Amino acid sequence: MRAVAQERSKVAFARLFDHFAPRIKAYLVRSGSDMGAAEELVQEAMLIVWRRAESFDRAQASVATWMFTIARNKRIDAYRRMSRPELDPDDPALAPQPEPMQDDSVGADETAQAIRTAIADLPEEQAEMLRLAFYEDLAHSEIAEKTGLPLGTVKSRLRLAIGKMRGLVDDDLR
């Protein structure tokens, strides 16, 4: 391995290849790869061995362990590529959302206005709880911390506000 790493000896690499390639291929086949895939993975692994030979550290692993680890990682990468489906450009999920119909936009505008009106009709402490919970997207515990109110009070005010909102918004939209 030293000759491959330091001298870039092709003869030493050929000996290394002749010794380990059949063993790595057998390991890959036993691990579930078919013969063609195993041969391809051996080629890729041995190419990495050639390119990264100088990074091999005998203190961390033996040559065999290092090479088999490279092959195993190549097999894992290949498996991940195979199990990840390719994107179908005709997939309806990838199509952009159609523009909303004009009457849907009007309906959404009316609903938004009804919500704004309903919030304005709420007592200020309930309206503030709704703003913090829904517009600032704060959790109940964060609202309690920010306002200095007990968590139970925050939950009660939100429950009351939402109940009143349902009635007010339903009335406005009828």
How would you explain this protein's 3D organization?
The protein has helices at residues 2-7, 10-30, 35-51, 63-83, 102-121, 124-135, 140-147, 151-173. It starts with a helix and ends with a helix. The chain has 2 domains: 2-83, RNA polymerase sigma factor, region 2, helix turn helix motif (Rna Polymerase Sigma Factor, Chain: A), CATH 1.10.1740.10; 112-173, Arc Repressor Mutant, subunit A (Orthogonal Bundle). By secondary structure, it is mainly alpha-helical. Keywords: Sigma factor, Transcription, Transcription regulation. Belongs to the sigma-70 factor family. ECF subfamily.
Keywords:
mainly alpha, Arc Repressor Mutant, subunit A, 8 helices, single chain, 174 residues, Rna Polymerase Sigma Factor, Chain: A
- Characterize the largest beta sheet: strand count, sense, and whether it forms a barrel: none
Q: How far apart are the termini?
A: 82 Å
| Number of distinct helices | 8
The helix-and-strand class reads mainly alpha
Q: Any guess at the CATH architecture of the largest domain?
A: Orthogonal Bundle
GO molecular function: DNA binding; sigma factor activity
GO biological process, one term: DNA-templated transcription initiation
Protein name: Sigma-70 family RNA polymerase sigma factor
Family: Belongs to the sigma-70 factor family. ECF subfamily.
